């Protein structure tokens, strides 16, 4: 597995983006508004090609205002890399659908 080569200018395009690492894999946290654009960027960027959505997870933190974390696990077969994308939402907040970006999300 290669190290994920994120463009250092990615934070200029996605203002809410926060990048951390977990077990040597990047974790990208982004606002719900910027989520679709970030997923398209990760899928279509020729240096990344995260074309497979592996899983969507939800984690409930009842004491937080943005109570739910929604987590997207992506895989790049071409570069043998994984990346995690996270966003947080309130109890009554809707997320934009990722089905147009990753049709497999329609399950």
Automatic annotation (TrEMBL):
Q: Which GO terms describe its molecular function?
A: NADH dehydrogenase (ubiquinone) activity
Name of the protein in question: NADH-quinone oxidoreductase subunit C
Q: Which domain of life is it from?
A: Bacteria
Q: Which family does it belong to?
A: Belongs to the complex I 30 kDa subunit family.
What PANTHER family does this protein's entry cite? NADH DEHYDROGENASE [UBIQUINONE] IRON-SULFUR PROTEIN 3, MITOCHONDRIAL, NADH DEHYDROGENASE UBIQUINONE IRON-SULFUR PROTEIN 3
The residue ranges of the NADH:ubiquinone oxidoreductase 30kDa subunit domain are: 29-107
UniProt cross-references to Pfam families, sorted A to Z: Complex1_30kDa
In its UniProt entry, the species of origin is given as Candidatus Fonsibacter lacus
